[in-house]
Amino acid sequence: ARKPRSKLAVFFESDDEDPPTPSLSIRAYLHLETILHQPARGKKPSAPVMKSSQCNPFIFSIDTSFNAFVRAVAIAAKTTATNLTLPRLRWKFETPASLPMKMLTDEIGFQAMLDAVQERTKGHTIFLFLPKPIDLEVPPEVSSRNNCTYEYEEDSSMLAERDTMLSHKSQIDALRQDSAKEVAELQRRYPIGNHPLFPDKRIYAKGGLFWDLSPVRLDVWAAAIQNPRATIDQPPMSNHFTKDKTIKPPCP
To answer: Which pLDDT tens digit goes with each residue over 176-219?
Structure first.
């Protein structure tokens, strides 16, 4: 006779309580996009080509907040949340590959994605697509089964949808346009020569450390004020404001 299998005993505080339901986990693969312009060949004009580098995957649950999800995306991209171009964040299921991308720019889009995942009985893996952030360490390239660098070319309709935004210059221009008011406030708060040790610079000083408020650093700070992840008196948690980015006073 077969021996009966031992069973795991589970205890609850009350007979009326149901066993806790494990939270659904979602696997996410982030792809950072850049646009390259192929040289013209013969009579054919130069054509933009979308290339994508896949970052390390991460896992989150349906109980994750949108802000925590954004932080996870930033970690996967090896950058900070301030540097992400969230208005261009899109997602799709891993399969089938023909499914169109959907926008994932705010809490409403995030909740819609969670609802779609929960409606699936299997296949809880999603692909995320985002323009390569301005301030970023290059992510590792992922090889396919044919040992080729993972990249893809999008059709003309997908390129037309995003033909104005994926270069670094266009991201910077959009950032400056959206946060021009905050930049002006920072310039008034920290005018050139505001610190006697640096008469020709805008300086943010704290704890004996000094940061040169360059145009890029002002843009990052201004964008963080909009989120809001910073104030006019407190810069964001960004690699633009780390200790190694400080400057030393000139020698007397």
So the answer is: 566 788 889 999 999 999 999 999 999 999 999 999 999 888 88
Count CA within 13 A, CB hemisphere, residue 4.
Answer: 3
Q: CA 28, CA 128: separation in Å to the nearest integer?
A: 7
The CA-to-CA distance between both ends of the chain, in Å, stands at 93
**Stated pTM of the model:** 0.47
Please list the residues that pair with 125 across neighbouring strands: 27
Give 63's contacts (C-beta < 8 A, 6+ positions apart). 23
The burial of 12, by beta-carbon neighbours within 10 Å (0-12 exposed, 13-18 middle, 19 or more buried), is given as exposed
Decide if 128 contacts 93 (C-beta within 8 A).
no
The token pair at 109 is 């889009």
CA–CA separation, 101 vs 208, rounded Å? 48
